[in-house]
Design brief:
Oligomer: homodimer
Number of strands of chain A: 20
Number of helices of chain A: 16
Strand order of the largest sheet of chain A: 9-8-11-10-12-13-14
Helix content of chain A: 25-40%
Strand content of chain A: 15-25%
Largest sheet of chain A: 7 strands, mixed
Chain lengths: ~475, ~475
């Protein structure tokens, strides 16, 4: 069960930015994965050369098809394989002859099956590729995605619909990549890279973290883990990110049944949950406890400057959501601070008496007043005790113009401290404005006050985990 | 600060099913709440008589307007008031003369403001209405909604877009009612009644719980609470529901700042959070810790039969989501049981070898096989150790037809045990099929595996809190 040595210093960039991709097992039959991979690459807008390989066809989906890898006229950077397991070893040999630089091995039937031959085959594939310096994603993976290169080397074309952004996800489960993607389509999270590690025959979390650490398009590294044989390389690579790029991890397998499922799923023990938690903390990895928490934290970390302390100002249109958020703030280590008298004076001047003008600040009857809202947020941000702002605004018929007003009012302005918002409205009503506010870098929006508070807390936790002070940077998508 | 005595045995049904509604302060000016209330009632499809009252106008939004309540020719069951606070006392007198049976008092400027005159005014209004036997919702409320009567007596027309169903929400915060409504529009939760209690001048949680307990359209009572002066009547009414109708509560105000916000917000102390938790348990109220948890539990309780034990079977298309769900199951008191050998035999016969066929059951390569999926679910449901089923299916291009297949396969069949699902797909892809599956009563769908597991756990917790065994009922929307 020992981990096969990784591909060493192999340039993983070629996996994500290939100039050409061969699809071994390309097909038009919708019952075959090869057809879905073809559609992913064709519909995704990939600009490089595509070479379908299928000895039985002259063309596949309107593209000339090649009988074998060796017959492809040009160079092949990335090879996606969707053939039965028993044919993979021969194809890896062909990849080596052809000088292929990276492989996505979507095929299953390796270490995850209940048959020792699967494990033996995987070991042989891994050894051969490693000796040739070829990194393999998989086997038993859905594939990989690089949104910034319009590359969808997976069997699910819908990954091409994801927004582009700064989150990169490395996952031990393809199912979780799909879940995360579909949730993200509803909440505006932008992705850089997504990789399903599958059975990790010669690449593991550590290799990907090392690569993503150096990848300028990746603002935050998000991990979904079930358990790995030797977590040390991963922890070391994560520790190297410390101080420059946040790493967050959702580790499942705390339950006894989950543990046995993991063993079958990707051929590894889920291991001791508590030991992982301790190791994460030492490596500066922010541990989260659910899919949505992973996504919310990743979104905030990719889009916000890091706060320099736990002080939070809560600016709200309604008292109820603010109370819910304050509970979470306090539970998660943020402090709803008392404003300085200077800040208090500024806010008192902006709001009518009888509204709640301490922290939380209830805009109450002044929620239609954009200048007052902007003034309150600015006053809070200028307060030295405030390190981040929670902005909670729930739609009502009487404040329908609030989101548009905020867009107009803010212009290109960017705040030096994170503004984590929960602006909620009926579907379709504020969606465009919220997208614009996020695109402008004015704020990051979460679906509930509690999740906004938890994301704000994640920003401060991530900052606390970092060893050295980080330079203040402005917000940006 | 003592609680004004409630309206006693007044029939609260008249608030939710009035044959006529007067709007005192009706307006066409979009800057006035009176215009939003008019739109709510007109657009909501309310079938009863509407009487706008505005002495300055002959008509409002195409309807004849009356100079005062007394000039209205017919009887007035419900009166919605959106006038400034100083004019309310006179209008309550008019209501009494006219024989109005219930009032929604949207006006603010009462106990919630930092001026003793507000509190005094509220006490007077409450006393007068109580002596006349008139229940008042408010003051300082957004209003009330009865989806089954197409009645939207609130200042937010969008409540009329909510799906009809079995959840009734009683909330101390209008902001939270809005938040809950907008979240629900994205997740298919169906409502019966929604009430913003506001300052509770002569009606409190206890009165509403008593009414909803006897309301056949309400399957589950959901409470959002900040804190009340005397929780005993509420706890007593909730205890009376025990064994017949689930009551769930989200209580905020655990933080010290939240506590002071609550005092200002609805004029009451948030009180001791832990004391509330204990009282909830004694009263058989299921306590939840967030807006989404409240909604998820309410949705499941409104749509599913209650499980008779903690045993859960996990049927999944992908191992990762199942592991995440199993962690939550175990943490929340469910047991991922070992199947009987009989069940195991049935499942082995349905699935290919090499897939994970114990609990969790990974459909793996058989995810396109609807007969196998149905057979596995049925085998699990027939297992005496299984009390509920978690069904986790994530879309991939290769299983796109799964949701439709499930709809066709199930027909009108209903299972005797709850099936809590997490079927996820890109927006728009499976939405219609999931709605049909929920409408058929086949399952209840939640957005993540963790939330599905937590909702399944809430079903069992709600069952555990009930004093006596409940009859098995089939699922239904």
């Amino acid at each position: 069960m020992g981990r096969v040595a990784g591909p060493g210093k192999a340039d993983l960039g070629i996996l994500f930015d290939p100039t050409s991709v061969a699809i071994v097992g390309a097909s038009e039959d919708p019952g075959k994965l090869g057809s879905h991979v073809m559609r992913s690459l064709l519909n995704g807008g990939y600009k490089g050369a595509l070479y379908p390989v299928n000895p039985k066809r002259g063309e596949v989906m309107g593209m000339p098809s090649y009988p074998s890898l060796s017959k492809i006229p040009g160079e092949v950077d990335l090879c996606v394989m969707v053939l039965p397991a028993e044919r993979i070893l021969g194809q890896i040999r062909s990849c080596i002859s052809k000088g292929v630089k990276g492989v996505v091995l979507a095929t299953s039937g390796f270490k995850e099956v209940d048959d020792p031959r699967g494990e033996a085959l995987q070991a042989e594939v891994g050894k051969m590729a490693t000796e040739a310096g070829i990194p393999i994603v998989g086997p038993n993976t859905f594939g990989l995605v690089n949104r910034h290169a319009d590359l969808n080397a997976s069997f699910t074309p819908e990954f091409g619909l994801l927004k582009k952004g700064g989150v990169s996800l490395v996952s031990q489960s393809g199912g979780m990549c799909h879940l995360v993607a579909f949730l993200s389509m509803r909440s505006g999270i932008g992705f850089s890279k997504i990789v399903g590690l599958g059975n990790r025959c010669n690449m593991d979390f550590g290799d990907l973290i090392r690569y993503l650490h150096g990848d300028p398009a990746t603002k935050v590294i998000a991990l979904y883990m079930e358990g790995i044989d030797d977590p040390r390389p991963m922890m070391e690579e994560a520790r190297r990110c410390n101080g420059s790029k946040p790493v967050i991890a959702y580790k499942v397998g705390s339950s006894t049944v989950g543990d046995s499922a993991s063993r079958s799923h990707t051929g590894s023990m889920a291991g001791d949950h508590l030991a992982y938690r301790g190791a994460f903390r030492q490596a500066g990895i922010l541990a989260v406890e659910g899919t949505e928490e992973l996504l919310d934290a990743a979104k905030a970390l990719a889009m916000c400057p890091l706060p320099q302390g736990p002080g939070v100002a809560v600016v709200t249109g309604q008292a109820g959501p603010a109370m819910a958020a304050c509970d979470v703030c306090e539970r998660e280590g943020l402090r709803v601070v008392r404003f300085t008298s200077e800040t208090q004076r500024k806010i008192y001047a902006l709001l009518p008496p009888f509204s709640l003008r301490d922290n939380p600040v209830d805009m109450g009857p002044a929620w239609y007043n954009m200048a007052a809202l902007k003034g309150v947020i600015e006053a809070a941000i200028e307060d030295n005790g405030v390190h981040s702002v929670l902005l909670l605004m729930t739609y009502a018929s009487a404040n329908a113009g609030l989101a548009e007003g905020l867009v107009c009012m803010l212009g290109d302005e960017r705040w030096q401290k994170p503004v984590v918002a929960c602006m909620t409205a009926p579907p379709g009503v504020w969606d465009g404005e919220i997208e614009r506010l996020e695109g402008m870098g004015a704020l990051v929006n979460l679906p509930t006050p509690e999740r906004a508070a938890r994301a704000a807390a994640a920003l401060w936790k991530a900052r606390s985990l970092m060893a050295s002070p980080v330079p203040v940077r402005t917000m940006g998508p």
